[in-house]
Amino acid sequence: MQHSESFIPLEHKELSKEQSEAATSDFYKLCDSRRSVRTFSEKEVPQHIIETIIKTAGTAPSGAHKQPWHFCAVQSAEIKSKIRKAAEKEEYENYHGRMSDAWLEDLKKFGTNHIKPFLEIAPWLIIVFKEMYEQTEEGKSTNYYVNESVGIATGMLLNAITCAGLVSLTHTPSPMNFLADVLNRPKNERAYLLIPVGYPEKNTVVPDIKRKDLSEIMTLY
Prior knowledge:
Blueprint: H1 17-32, H2 47-57, E1 69-74, H3 77-98, H4 101-107, H5 118-121, E2 124-131, E3 133-136, E4 139-142, H6 146-163, E5 167-168, H7 177-182, E6 189-198, H8 214-217
Helix pairs in contact: 2-6
């Protein structure tokens, strides 16, 4: 393979078998501890921690390295209030007509409804936007594999949140067009996910659910 002058040496630290097994086991345990949380504490989270979490998400691979994502970190009480008001309006429609009976039945175990106080209580809201195309001074430039790229970055974001000792919720008050309006985002961006981030409220409980076993999610060839 021929390389252009823009290539640089790979920085890679190889681990021993024992080190690799320990590292993957520790990381699995950390990720397995992640739970979706809907009761947040008002305890502050320093801005630099949120910035590092988002920088981590920004290390994700993307189609043609276009990095078609943007993360809005909201701590303004005024903006959080606007987001909650608009989200609850959409969620009311979802719970009272848009969602199928089967969908509503599947949600019963989570005890959710259209009221979303966590959108104001959580110290931070991270809104993930996907850039449908890149807007440059010359005009529009194509982004590739946008959903896949942003999905990977979001997964890394969630793990970084857990690594920081924080909790989160993947919230999708669909349709989410109101987020671009509230945050005055450019036309090339579409809201992808709304993620409250913070510390759990004291005595927080979560649904007693189980993850699929390895045998259900992996086929070995």
